[in-house]
Design a protein that fits this description.
The protein is α+β, with helices and mostly antiparallel strands. It is built from 8 helices and 11 strands. It has a 6-stranded mixed β-sheet with strand order 6-11-10-9-8-7, sandwiched between helices. A 5-stranded mixed β-sheet has the order 1-2-3-4-5, with helices on both faces.
Amino acid sequence: MPLKKLTTDMLGFRLAEEKGIEPGWFVPHIYDIIRYNPEGCFAFDSNNQVIGMITSTPYNKTGWLGWLYVAEKERQRGLGEELMRAGIEHLQARGIESILLEAVVKASSLYERLGFREQFTTQHYQLNRFDFTGTVDQEIIVHAIEDYSIERIGEFDRRFFYEDRRRLFEIVSDNSSFKGYVAEIEDKTAGILFLTRSSENRQVSPMVVDVETGRGTEIMSALFNVAFAGSDLPLYFRCPLVTVDRSLLLEKL
């Protein structure tokens, strides 16, 4: 079965099956991933019908696989594994040493069979405007992403993510479906927040906060205050529980 480069006009098969995915945020999001790494996003085609997809996102030594999907009627044929292997081989050819993904439990056996091992759990949170308990700290200044230096954002992000994501930040900053904010304390970058809007909520990814300042809750509060000033839609988070204490900062708000 031929493996093709994924394009956004191939996404209709998935939108038709996964009714919970909104085209308004899903298509622009996948477009940005393809734009970042067009050679590493793949689709299976059967008789001119797309039946599977996967994306890959390489940085320096670390890469991510995402959005794996096989059409329901084509499952149990090993196509998911073939797509995974295509993504893995692509990243390895790029010199990637560590490959990560966010897994749903029902697919974990596939990933483990390919050599992946569990690292941590991802906790999902939703913050509603009228449940938000954050306060305003006048010392924390929040800028819109378009008014801030991508170079400074990249330098800040690399302290915590350990890889250079500046090119990806440049791409999503050009996408009207995304909003981005940067928090500063005494002219130093202290946090970043990116949002993707859907009809029911706004998905947060990424959010990076410098908790070493001792003001992690205040930095998040400042970012959320600005986000809620623009819309009452809830904020939806996927928080990796690498350090549980940091995830508890969200619950304080």
